[in-house]
## 1
Amino acid sequence: MSLTRIRVHLLLVACLAVLPDQIARAENWPGWRGPHRNGVTSDTGVPTTWSATENVLWKMPLPGIGTSNPVVWGDKVFVTASEGRDQGELHVICFDRDTGRERWHQRLWGTAPTLFYGRSGMASPSPVTDGKRLFAFFGTGDVFCFDLDGGLLWQRAIADEYGPFENRFAAASSPLLFEDKLIVQCDHYGASYVLALDQQTGANRWKSDRPEVWLSWSSPQLVPSGDRVELVLCGSEKLDGYDPRTGSRLWTVRGLARECVPTPLFGHGMLFVVSGPNGTHLAIKPGGSGDITDSHVVWKNDRGTSFVPSAILVGERYYLADDKGIGSCLDAHTGKLIWKKRFGDKFTASPVAADGKLFFTNEAGSTLVLDATQAGYEEVARNDIGEEVYASPAISQGKLFLRTAKNLVCVGMKLAPR
Amino acid sequence: MKWIAGCLMLVGLVRIGGLAPPDDPGPQLAVIAKTGPQGEGSAAAKVARDQLAKQGVEVLPQLLVAMDTTNAVAANWYRTVYEEIVARELARDVTKWPVEFFKEYVSDAKRAGRPRRLVLGLLDKLEPAFRAKWLPTRLDDSEFRYEAVGLALSAGDRALQDKDPSSAKAAFRKAFESARDSTQVTQAAAKLKSLGEPAEVAQHLGLVTEWWLVGAFDAPQKTGFAKIFEPEVNVDLQAKYRDQGGTEIVWKRHHETDTLGQLDLNKQLGTTREAVGYAYSEIDVPRAQAAQVRCGADDNCSVWLNGEKVFARDQWLNGTRFDRFIAPIQLKSGRNTLLVKICQGPQHKDPEVPNNWSLQLRLCDEQGRGIAFKPAQMP
């Protein structure tokens, strides 16, 4: 072995020695609310200060409208959007993480556009990826599967197969991946259901009808419960637990709002669910069967609930900014209020967290950064991107991706020139 | 050998110029046409798509004809081919585009609207002056009507600014007659009326505004949808019933004056909850015809035409949105009867949510133009 080759090997070993740490600090953001579907990532090195010009690595215009969060896998960033008078023109776009260059852009037709919210159109659901395929669900009742180079692999026009969605603000539920299935919650004014699709072919693995369920915009969640995994769906004044392998319903908790938007969280062995406005926060032990309202609810708090933004759980504390901009922090174990603050402006985006910091982005485009390691309210910074923001941010590989009303903005530390 | 090389070069140049006959795309198009529910046919469609995408613009006419399909999945597979070829060829400056085919295709109102719109977008790049000349002529084209009416409204506004009321009236009249979108209809009507011209929105949209009303019948919680009250069994405008409180109630005549025919039952029958009201109308239609009933109600409605139930939806806490529900109907020549049941549910647990009780209903053709009818002369 030559000296040069030995040097190369030593360098490789040195790289491998630090790699686990690097991996731990550079996660992907593969779908709605990140790697653990709760807004929290182990990523580090994310800037805590920025402005419309400071720490902006790149900014790319987006077509149409949408509030789906950006999805990041490796050096690719994926965004969905819709446009047109009926928002039936759908976009799935892949940007280069480091430069913002558009790598590919698929334009498709949505099968059955519905009424919609003027900021999100048909592109409220966030796409999701496993690193091999990208799955995109739209309010038009379509699911598309692409390879990561933009090649269409399959499409399901479920609005054609099971009837058009009837929705005031277009469907907003972000699908999730479980084993070899893609789970899509389709709650609407008509016949509601939840589907598990084969990731490879798009065919149904199971379909579970939800005849008693009305319109909701919440996203499904997976929770461990003993030796099983449960699929949790909010909607129509209740929370249902399902077996994600079969679609059979396991349990129900009553007491949610009629129309649910936020996504449940899991932590400390409990499910945290919020629905509002004028609704309630619930902490629930998953498991059981039938109506578990009286047996599994650990705590309940009727104050400060949100209609759209989801909550976030960091350590022992549960944080939320409601739609009107009132922030609150509860003890995750008891539901007791720790602090309450007026954050300012309105909120649609859900908070994210990394590196001991919480990021709350309001509709005006200002992100409030809080220190999550402190027991009390500890403001780190307020950063104004200079544009309206309705989509939840994504954090990946030391960068924060803000989808503004018109652009995708990559915020990160600029490397000093050599 | 030089002449062989020369021929090959010539073939290459011709292909680049888009003049070469295409490899027959029929088999690949047929494979994609077989895609359907459950992701069926996707793997084969992917192969066919990739092969088609290698072709030049000469394949676009056949591709566009294939895109004129009701198969939503196949249409998107075709579209990915179209987008790839168009993006690639636009980057060249030697492509010979089938522009005349594109113009014929985009002007064929019988074809599916979405691929026609794609082609119009491409024509914007190939022949930028085309749209401005072509679009104002599309007043009877269901895909482009909205934009054409918008242009007619703008032309009317410009004529007004130029102090040319005669041209303005003509433009607004054209917009009004062609419009099917309720907002455009009301806009055009308002413009005409401001110029002293008649324009009947209710007639144009086929809104039913002459009603006989009775209620509120007692229907605790959400029982009203299924519970059958006397008017459903027999409409007798002279009959007397008991309301929720036991008070005698009778049918009363009502003419709705709301521009879009929205009937507020809280005003007409009294503010209440957990109740049922009925609206009845008779209309005279000049000829038998297929039509649509388009309706919306808060909380919900059931509709009977000539004694036959033609629409019902068991939903609660809905808003009354224009054309929310559409059901096909068959009107007979002469007198037709309409009975509508409107349910009012419990108050939402959030006291800030208004407890609306309302109905909006119209009769129109598939394009949304109101059916010509007259309210029947009734005692």
## 2
Amino acid sequence: MTHDAAQAIRDAASALATRWIDPPVLQPAGLYLELAGEDIRARAYMLAGDDDAAFCLRPDMTAPAVREALRDGDWTKPFGVAYDGLVFRRQVDGAKESEFRQIGAEVFASAAEIARREADVTVAALDACRVAGVEPRVRLGDVGVFEALVEACALPESWSRRVKRAFSRPGGLATVLREAASPPAPEESVLGEALAALPDDRAEAVVEELLADARIVLVGGRTIGEIAARLREKGRSLHAPRADADALKLIADMTAIEAAPDVAFDALRTAAKNTAMKAPAPFLAALDRAAARWTAVARDRKPDATFSAGFGRGLAYYDGFVFELEAPTLGARASLGGGGRYDGLLHRIAASQGGGPKSPAGWGAAGFALRPARIAEAVR
Amino acid sequence: MSTLIIGVPSKGRLQEQTLAFFADCGLAISQDGGKRGYAARMAGQAAVEVRLLSAGDITAALRDGDIHVGVTGEDLLRELGAGFQRIIMVKPLGFGRADLVVAAPSAWLDVTTMADLDEVSAAMRARTGKRLRVATKYLKQTHAFLDGRGVDDYRIVESLGATEGAPAAGVADVIVDITTTGATLSANHLKTLSDGLILKSQAQLAASRAATWPPEARAVFAAILDQIEAREHGRALKLVRAAVGAAKAEALQALVVRMGGRLASESEPGLFAFYCPAERAPEASAAAAALGAGPVGVFGSDYVFERTGALSRRFSDDLGPE
């Protein structure tokens, strides 16, 4: 019964939160466009305000909850907020519900304290499902483990960046691997090579003079210094090392591992012995943290679970552990909700609101949100 | 009640070219209420109502099925997104040509390709937390194109006025817009990226699947398409008359085939007329003259009609059964 599912989630959210909030349904569209990119236009209902696309109907509760917390929280001691409300999503990719209820909680504390509470957040969501009468399957991932994996392979900087960015795109890693296997001919840049031989300030002066002679006015949001620096980088990259194909292959193989958490952690530890992994220590440390977190969750509960270092979540909010709870009997509508750690999102929203006295510098954030209607459906 | 409603651009160069096109096809459009009227008739087509609308309104009216047929830019049609499924592009008209392109500041000497733009946008976001700002009126095509090129650290700034001025005004970094010569881009200190061509656009004679198409409407439009096609064939073909004599009949028929032409008639034994692609008419005529005794005449044709036009048949297939 819907009421029971909702009540179970509300109880779980209450346990994490210090107060209930009721964020506005209308949220600034610009915030979501900055956070989630242009794809959000296809997923959220955008409303024309006086300016272009000034508002959207909230497509989730996390970002609105963070905005409320930044505005009203005191940010001197750890706190949590809980919410219960409708979110609105356009019906793309076969999604059935254009509006549905989400109940959840977000907790804020120092990064170190949040790390200790990650297991609590997972447990809260898991137990809410159990109280409501559903035994969910848990899908785990950890963006931090993935980032540590890329770092450990010590790729050239530009390849490291590309691999990390590809992570959140469907098929992105495969694309990067293909590109690495058949590298495009390095673009000839006579200007870049010439500039690379000059000291920084001289290179900038040359570019400035070139533009002045050609009567080109600088428009757009980059400085001459940035343009000169990138020209020099291009010039140098003609002789730069290429990405190690073995390392890229290792990254692809390791992110493809998906198994029961303890099995997956062991497989990843074994794979880390590959010589393509130049500096495995930070990766192994990140893996240990993920394993310890899971042990804390699973100790008394022993849920059906899988871990995948390639499991990232679509909204690109999360930058640490992530989890999703599923009811396999519901097929395409299996997701009951999920959550994770999102320090980066907290700081991006804080920066977009102009910081102010309640700066959350050094703080972290984690939370969960569940869909009571789906849980009720799974109970039936 | 008109059987077929056609939307025609109401202003500017696109209107001039559209009216000239129909007039050339013998389908001259005359405005009822003088120059300022917004309804018009088409010569020889009593069942047609012509509505003069802006290209943007024609596009929307095609999407909504408020008109059967319209002339508008392919760039606008494709911007309908999912609504483009409701459009049949019946015939490209060869005018109103323009390219939809990605243009970056000329001063960005390090940026010449989409891959450069991808790297620069990622670096901007990493450094400032802000996405590359792309000014455009073409939201859907921009999104689809950048997405397909793996660029995702960007944000669209919807522009309503002069898009090319957005970077100079400080509200965007790059733009996606229509250009013909590139002169306006250079004047605004912008350049196109080498692989930044999104669409080669031109004016299209387009039909709406969303409109209701009773048999009478299909028949009227088919007749118009047949006339357009006949005019096109008329321009492309010359009629060659050659008196080669009955003895050379086979040789002439072989010549016609070789020239990509078609025999039209043999009005009396040995006097042939055939259609020949205009550009090969002199060569074919000289060869025909060499075959026979009599003179060879070459004539222009206004229209060449077929029993069933390929254009109208293809439209009928695209629209589906009645």
